Amino acid sequence: MASVLPLHPYVDAERYQEERRAIFARSWQFFGLSADLSRPGDYLAETLAGFPLVVVRDAQGTLHGFHNVCRHRGGPLVSEAKGRCDKELVCRVHDWRFSFDGRLLAAPGIDLGRDMDVSGLGLYPIRVESWAGFLFVNLDKDAAPLADALGDLSRDSWTLADRTARLRHSHPVACNWKIYAENHLSGYRIGGEFSTKTSSLDRGASQIKMSDGVLSDDASGSKTTEEHHWAYIWPNLSFTLYRGVLLIEAIRPTGHERTEIDHIFLHAPEDPTVDAAMVASEDVTHDNAWACEKIQKNFAAGVFQPAPPGLAPDLPSDWFRDRIHKSLSLGQSL
Ligand code: FES
After folding, report:
1. Quick check: CB of 72 below 6 Å from ligand 1?
2. Which range among 3-7, 270-274, 284-288, 312-316 has the greatest average pLDDT?
3. Range of the domain at 123
4. Which of 92, 110, 112, 169 could form an SS bridge with 263, CB 3.0 to 4.6 Å?
């Protein structure tokens, strides 16, 4: 298993474009909660790794996903992150109208009824699947089902149960998404800035279960309790259950040196523990962000070279870097 990456995937804008295509356009990405799309016409929109996307529920209850890109001149079909549309998706620029299954229905000033084949002017589709109340999308029409990506990740562990309340926070961090992900996953936290504040969310001592697409604590491990449970889903999503509060953390790249950390805390209404869990998590995020921004600058300065593999073995981070190697054509640059 590789345990180092060369520096250019962390600092190079062209490499980021390769990652958008090779990783984020081909992996299942967390998109939101199924509960937010309960009625026909309800939609959610999000930009993932630079791809503007929308998911809408039709009158039969089926979910449809598309690039949020009109086939006329590329305008947006919806402009809010969440909302409801009336029977059709209507482009915000010149009002071309599309059915919820993506067909072009009407275009103002153009007679589509006669001698006009518009079958090739439907919206660009994406895949949508849900699991345990969570929505995922995949831009690759040939991708394996979501269930394959999740492997034997227990559905029961993450049931929403009565966690109907939520808090949402977003943190911009000036670093490459991989620096944040590696720091997030690292069990190598001895001393330094992290020693005290991560103790409440410590993952390093847990036994780790590893599959191609998922890292998780071992349910049979001594450190795993109903109070504390975690999983990381390739490439950029973690679930942490901490004292009854479920934290979903998505590490969203917004550029080669910019990342957005999206947190959703799901909890029971009136749960008094949510504030403490959130403060603990936000403390960890703040410290991670501080370190990752410094690391990004040092990587970009061009002096640092990665330490030899094996010097400081770190199973979760090694798993992550190995997945990066498999996804990108990094070739002999190690
Ligand atoms: S860009 Fe959508 S109708 Fe013109």
Report:
1. yes
2. 284-288
3. 29-142
4. 169
